[in-house]
Write a structure and sequence with these properties.
Layout: E1 2-6, H1 11-20, E2 25-29, H2 39-49, E3 53-56, H3 65-68, H4 70-91, E4 94-100, H5 123-135, E5 141-146, E6 149-150, H6 167-177, E7 181-184, E8 188-189, E9 192-193, H7 194-206, E10 212-215, E11 222-223, H8 224-235, E12 241-244, H9 264-268, H10 276-286
Parallel strand pairs: 1-2, 1-3, 3-4, 4-5, 5-10, 6-9, 7-12
Antiparallel strand pairs: 8-11
Helix pairs in contact: 1-7, 2-4, 4-5, 6-8, 8-10
Bound molecules: NADP nicotinamide-adenine-dinucleotide phosphate.
NADP nicotinamide-adenine-dinucleotide phosphate binds next to helix 1 and strand 4.
């Protein structure tokens, strides 16, 4: 099986390339090698590589930046997915595309499933929803909503000169450095461990599972403060932690307060998405936490 990975130097792109490369051929394209907003380049690259699967890990992820640069957000997260879907259709390939919990408005009090109605509250969220729609334009597609990714690069080499990571990675960085950490008590998430997301992606494609939309997160939910509390307790440094509410921090884009997702559908399809605490433990071991 040949897999073409776009955005291959991002946190998920690196891990997906590593994972799919274990049992097959991978054509890993960084942004410098393939800009997915270049429609002609996308069509030509896919026609040349003739992949069985295209995994789109490229994205514009600057949630606040998208408010002032909506054209870039819409182009990368939306229109470029239309090009990838057209190329996949042409090549008879399966398209895997990642989206986000931010497509919801956060008004729920129980985890969102795949039938819940999206109601994006920001430019970033709208651009990701547009990408979802375009991804469904190819017959064999998997749209995987992930959330609060962490652990990208923990088990694979980091690109030279920069460290990959999102909120939880930065929390663990700070705790390991002995720096204070503030955790939101009013934002609820279902963190997603990058190696588990990559493994679930491979499972869906190789079975193959029924095509469509899946919520691809680790099990359970917690506020950011609770997530940080578990990390701090595992590292024995709870005193570094303090609670804070999100209204004390100025952010340009609106963010949903409650964005836990239910992973029941993807688990029923055969993915192993253990509780986030289990994933956090494996992440800390991968980062070299003394046991
Ligand atoms: N991180 C999270 O917590 C989170 C949450 C929800 C959903 N997601 C979704 O999960 C997926 C993977 O995210 P991630 O965290 O792995 O992202 P990431 O680490 O920011 O990586 C994104 C990659 O896309 C590349 N890229 C940007 N514009 C491009 C373009 N025009 N053409 C080709 N490549 C381009 C970037 O290249 P450069 O490095 O050169 O800029 C980068 O390598 C994305 O769809 C994202 O929206 C992530």
């Amino acid at each position: 099986m040949t897999t073409l990975v776009t955005g291959a130097s991002g946190q998920l792109g690196l891990e997906v390339s590593r994972r799919f490369g274990r049992d097959g051929d991978v054509v890993a394209m960084t942004r410098a090698q393939l800009d997915i907003t270049d429609h002609g380049a996308v069509l030509a690259t896919v026609a040349r590589a003739r992949p069985d699967v295209i995994v789109n890990c490229a994205a514009y992820n600057d949630v606040d930046g998208a408010e002032t640069d909506p054209v870039t957000a819409m182009t990368v997260n939306g229109l470029a997915v239309r090009s990838l879907a057209a190329a996949a259709r042409e090549a008879g390939a399966t398209l895997v595309h990642y989206s986000t919990d931010f497509v919801f408005d956060g008004q729920s009090s129980r985890p969102y499933d795949e039938y819940a109605e999206p109601a994006p509250q920001s430019v970033y969220a709208s651009s990701k929803l547009l990408g979802e729609w375009f991804a469904t334009g190819t017959p064999r597609h998997y749209v995987l909503r992930v959330e609060s990714l962490f652990g990208g690069g923990a088990e694979s080499p980091q690109p030279a000169g920069r460290r990959l990571g999102s909120t939880l990675d930065r929390i663990v960085d700070a705790l390991l450095d002995g720096r204070p950490v503030k955790g939101f008590t009013d934002r609820t998430v279902s963190p997603s461990y990058v190696p588990d997301v990559a493994a679930a992606t491979e499972m869906l494609v190789s079975r193959p599972a029924p095509v469509g939309l899946y919520h691809c997160v680790n099990g359970g939910l917690a506020t950011w403060f609770e997530v940080a509390q578990v990390a701090a307790s595992r590292l024995g440094c709870e005193s570094l932690l303090s609670p804070v509410t999100s209204d004390t921090v100025e952010m340009r884009a609106a963010r949903p307060r409650f964005c836990a997702l239910s992973n029941e559908k993807i688990v029923t399809a055969g993915a192993s998405m253990p509780p986030w605490e289990d994933a956090l433990d494996r992440y800390l071991v991968a980062r070299g936490r003394p046991d």
